[in-house]
């Protein structure tokens, strides 16, 4: 009997091939033909699963986002005690920094995609901004609960703080990616900011002026 084709497996193989091309040559070098060659598939087969390069790139971003969330959850599961709101946020920010191959490729792809989208109308119309928006909502929910439990400094707005944290993480991530800051330096900046937002019980609560 002919082997049943696993379409999900093929789509995943194409996404992984794209990520390997990006890691070696950068996102600007990605073409449907290059991905086909990397995956060992025909160009026609790539176009069967992804009608455009933009569709393939968006699939790669969604794939990376899912993996990043899985890694975030794994970080939380490895903590010895029940995670606090500070733990949730710290582990998100640690995952957001490009400190290993997995997180580095995510940051590289997203940043490169954003730059290309400024001049490529097809990329700009794709929902690549949905990922950061989902992160902001998840962090805002965490900070809402932190406000209810007294963990969040009481005068702060959870939604605004969530937006600030996502953008702070992106900015510091870019600095680490290009070598302006080391990972430990970036984590120190993030920790300093969190002391003003979600102070630990052994630290004095920031005073409202």
From TrEMBL:
Residues 31-50 bind DNA. Residues 8-68 form the HTH tetR-type domain. The keyword Acyltransferase does not apply. It comes from the Bacteria. One of its GO terms (molecular function) is transcription cis-regulatory region binding. It holds the Pfam family TetR_C_6. The keyword Ion transport does not apply. Keywords: DNA-binding, Repressor, Transcription, Transcription regulation. SUPFAM superfamilies: Homeodomain-like (SSF46689), Tetracyclin repressor-like, C-terminal domain (SSF48498). InterPro entries: BetI_C, Homeodomain-like_sf, HTH-type_TetR-like_transc_reg, HTH_TetR, Tet_transcr_reg_TetR-rel_C_sf. This is TetR family transcriptional regulator. The lineage of its organism: Bacteria, Bacillati, Actinomycetota, Actinomycetes, Pseudonocardiales.
